[in-house]
Each structure stands twice: as structure tokens, then as C-alpha cells.
Write a structure and sequence with these properties.
Length: about 190
């Protein structure tokens, strides 16, 4: 039986991530990413790469965003369009339980799109020129909650009676991500 884990796009393609300037954070995430990928290979876990909504919507040279910016009907509709083929793939795998087991979904905590337990919040918006944005930047913070893309994916799966275990890659809590590839967390069909 093939075990499948749906993963945030940048888990397999870090070129899709924003340019980061915090080397400590980058190194910690990269170390966890590499450990997770090795464990996935060692445990025979197949990785189904989700699309990156931020790259597809804004390109590679985008600014950072917050969940508050993305939480609107237009971005959610784009997420639904990107995720429709993924939901069909999940349904197909679940229709063949003798051959496939879906272990769950692994997002990227801290992401405004793919965060699972943590996302990025802040009152972004407006014009940059002609104003001091330092006060706005200081209000950007890590907060509990899901990113918009993950929230939309779980909503769409729920609409089809599918509940998957969902967790996030987060260097301060590596055991959460590692459990997704080392354990058999599984799927529940409602």
C-alpha cells in the first residue's frame, strides 16, 4: 500500500518562498525540511505537492503578506480554483483504499497561506510611498490560526465528507511534522 502525504509547495521547492533575511530561521527550517524529506523517503511516504497560491497569484518577487490580506472572497476563490484538482486526486486515492492511504496534510506554519497551527497576522494595506510604514511592520506577528489556503483546502475536503489530519512544519516544534511521516496518522471519511 502506498502512503501519501499532501505537502505545502515550498517543502519541495524552496525557490517559491519569499526571500528571507533571518539566517537563523532559514537554517532551522532547512534542517527540519531535510530531516522530514529523509524520513519520508525512509518510510516510503509519497509526497503530493500542493500548488503555491502566493507564487501563482503574485510571482517570485512579491512582498510578504499577512493572513488578514488574503482573507477575502477573491483570494479564497483563487484558492478554490487551484485546489479543485487536488481534491479530485484525494477522492481518487480514497476510492482505492486497497492501494493507497492518505496520511494527511503538512502545511508550513507561519505562512499566511499554508499555516496550520500558526499564521502571520498584521494590518497590512495601503500605499508605501509618502508614509512611515515602520509602525505597521511592527504589528506583523505570528498568531495562532490557519492560513487561508489551508483553511480553504480543509473546507473543500469537508464539503466532500473527507477529514484529514493536518499539521504544520514549524522548527520550534519539529515533532509535529515528523509524526506525519513517521507515524500512521491516516484519513477519516465522514
Amino acid at each position: 500500500m502506498k502512503k501519501i502525504l499532501l505537502v505545502g509547495h515550498c517543502l519541495l521547492n524552496t525557490a517559491s518562498k519569499l526571500k528571507s533575511y533571518d539566517l537563523g530561521d532559514m537554517e532551522a527550517e532547512e534542517a527540519l525540511r531535510r530531516s522530514l524529506l529523509k524520513a519520508a523517503i525512509d518510510n516510503g511516504v509519497q509526497l503530493l505537492q500542493l500548488p503555491c497560491p502566493e507564487l501563482l497569484q503574485y510571482g517570485a518577487r512579491r512582498w510578504g503578506h499577512t493572513c488578514d490580506q488574503f482573507d477575502n472572497v477573491f483570494f479564497r476563490q483563487r484558492c478554490r480554483e487551484m485546489l479543485a484538482p487536488v481534491v479530485l486526486q484525494v477522492q481518487e486515492y480514497l476510492a482505492n483504499p486497497q492501494e493507497y492511504e492518505i496520511l494527511g496534510i503538512l502545511g508550513i506554519d507561519g505562512s499566511p497561506s499554508c499555516g496550520v497551527k500558526y499564521t502571520c497576522r498584521g494590518p497590512w494595506g495601503g500605499e508605501f510611498s509618502g508614509r512611515d510604514v515602520s509602525g505597521v511592520l511592527k504589528q506583523c506577528h505570528l498568531a495562532e490560526g490557519r492560513g487561508v489556503f489551508m483553511d480553504t483546502l480543509l473546507e473543500m475536503l469537508g464539503e466532500n465528507g473527507i477529514t484529514l489530519k493536518c499539521d504544520g512544519l514549524f522548527p520550534p516544534e519539529p515533532e509535529r511534522a515528523m509524526a506525519m511521516v513517521e507515524g500512521n496518522v491516516g484519513v477519516r471519511k465522514a
